[in-house]
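Illustration 12: Oxidoreductase.
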Amino acid sequence: MKRRVAQWVVVAFVVANLLVVEAMFVAYGEGKNGVLTVAKFFGLHLAMTMMFQILLVSRIPWLDRRLGMDRLTRWHRLIGLTLFWLILLHFSFVIAGYTRLGGASPWQTFLDLAGVTASLLGMCAAAIFLVVIGLSVRWARRRLGYEVWHALHMLLYVALGIGLVHQALEGTTFDATGATIYWWTLWVLILTNLVVSRFVVPLWRNAYHRFRVAAVVPESDNVVSVHVTGRHLDKLPARAGQFMIWRFLGHNNWWQANPFSLSAAPNGRSLRLTAKAVGKTSAGLRNIPVGTRVFAEGPYGAFTELHRTLDASLLIAGGVGITPIRALLEEAAGDVVVLYRVHTMDDAVLLPELHALAQPRGARVHVLTGRTGAGSPPNTPFAPGNLLALVPDIAQREVYVCGPTPMTDAVIGSLRALNVPTDQIHAERFSLA
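Figure caption equivalent — predicted structure in token form:
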């Protein structure tokens, strides 16, 4: 229910402002000719799409705890394609419109516009956006390390600033004072949310809590846990199942940050993250000196018991996706079943902790090993029939799933086949685990 309310709030905000802006465009948005009017139409919707994109990544706590950064980021990625086409359409119609207005060739028109400060800034902003969006498509994203991809995304703040200056210098979208005030007030509200949530709050929290590494504990050859302490951690609004974005100062460059889940329920005294060595930052965690200062953003995520409405729950983890599941088990009450998917028992990190937490709670832990599809009959632990055999009352449970994307997709598909209500399914993708 909380998730649906948040979704409707976002939709209502976007639709209401879109209708107002559409009405203002009809009344005050006429360009110098018909083609330039179309160019202004696409430019206006390009700016509105940018506003929505900023809203989705502002990490507003109320939205994040109900929808989760996982879902918000997915929407942000999908809308990025719309942004791509709106940039191309706006640019194309501007060139076509001024070509018709001035009578020069399209290439000469482009050169003439590039000599105008406002137009040149718009071109620069568009170029940055197109490059970053192009590098965010699945084919390119898979070939970039998280740190490189994250650093490239920081260029979008530069493009945003340039684009705002471009809008201010153009100043011709609405030929009415009231409409102009409304438009820039909307931008101020959106940007204020971004600055407060993404910069002011993290800076204040880190100054207040003063996070430091307290211990580094290897869990296996390629998995390590880092214990972090600080001041007044009982005031940090963290819950089991959430994650934080971590920077270890002096150990890596400041732009190298990674999202790691809390692998233990927050206790007001310390925080723990557990990570598998899959990239440069995560691979170097076991070498972090005790006492290292930590800059942490968050906590983030809706993968918590905030949405739970039933007493019984099913916690499903794959690989290092066990980290938020282990934290949830520590906080869980009622009838709990844990399914832990790994290739071999040697890969089942934190398993002793799972058993220690499960025993006093009467929870059941099932470790599912073997490669998917191997053997005869094929090993398919998350097929609908196999899930139902392990958990006969699965449709009467809250289900939490965290693991690699193929596993998560397979589990969700089986849950739907078993008629588990959508509101009872809570998934966190491996990329944020």
